[in-house]
Amino acid sequence: MAVAVRRSLKFLLRPTSKQAAALAACLEDHRTLYNAALEHRRTAYAKAAVSVRYGEQSAELKHIRADDAGGQGRWSFSSQQATLRRLDKAFRAFFDRVKAGRTPGFPRFKGRGWFDSVEWPKDGDGCRWDSQPEHPTATYVRLQGIGHVRVHQHRPVKGRVKTISVKREGSRWYVVLSCDDVPVEPLSATGAVAGIDLGVAWLVTTSDGEHVANPRHLAVTAERLATAQRDLARKKRGSDRRRKAVARVAALHAKVRRQRLDHAHKAALALVHAYDVIVHEELRIASMTRSASGTIEAPGRNVSAKAGLNRSILDAGWGVFLTVLAHKAESAGRELIAVNPANTSRTCARCGHGAKENRLTQAEFACTACGHAAHADVNAAVNILRAGLALRQAAEAA
């Protein structure tokens, strides 16, 4: 029986100037709809203690579109329903956080720079992928109210296109396809297994002693970014010059994001080609990068050092890498195991003795019990592999 998965594909759009203006208008109208629906919910609860649900707001769309045929009426009904579902999802997440006792964070109104995507929930309903299949060289996506927009399709689309989204990143436009029934294409077995340790000096270190470089894309761009941000700080709010300065800062961040994602894809691909089983640490990156500043009454210690470490961790892009690795392992038929990282960096991979004195520096490991010496990250990766294989064996025996 063939195994199939769901995958998302992202392609650069090449709209004409008229289409780019229409895409911007589409985002703006959907942002307005989102904010109006949020205000409706807030007012209904504040004035009459009534909770408004998605179904009620969706039913009102027909009247909204009829009253504003040249505005809201231009766009796909289904895409507007998706925007209302987006708000409903934000409210459900808010109430889930309240029940869990976490900081709730009430849903906010979306400013002009905080609403950059629109979704069409079904291919063929207000949108159509590959809308001009007879074209010999180019691919197009048709979007209601915008037209046939050219797509830079750099890879084939497999499976069945289910949803289509348009996303704005700086001055660029992208189309994102969510595809069902994408066939898994297993790679040939290698017979090799590996544990991997994620770090700052090296992005990945394997239990075989191989290192994958950490390019530190944000650090490389830091000087240019600081200059752009200082220039932005001097601009008057609402001015054309400030908008251009904002665009320059956003473009630099977008470039770093693309570089980081590209490196993650290449590193993950090399791992799934080399190993049948890959064991990694189950990291809670949000907790690891939490600020150490504390409060006025109880200020934190070593705040500058912790802030620098947080920047280095986020610049390494561990979360991006692990997400990409999970997708590639699934598609390649490889096994991925996550283990508790506790004490893997201070436990001797030879004798099992654990002590903080074992790790002399960031790179050096020397066991105080048996004298075993190794690169600290390689020692940790061996421990991670051992823990993963033990979990795998226990699962098979159960």
TrEMBL record:
Protein origin, superkingdom: Bacteria
Domain Probable transposase IS891/IS1136/IS1341, first and last residues per copy: 185-291
Keyword Metal-binding (UniProt): yes
Keyword entries, A-Z: DNA recombination, DNA-binding, Metal-binding, Transposition, Zinc
Keyword Metal-binding among UniProt keywords: yes
BP-aspect Gene Ontology terms: DNA recombination; transposition
Official protein name in the record: Putative transposase
Top-level taxonomy: Bacteria, Bacillati, Actinomycetota, Actinomycetes, Streptosporangiales
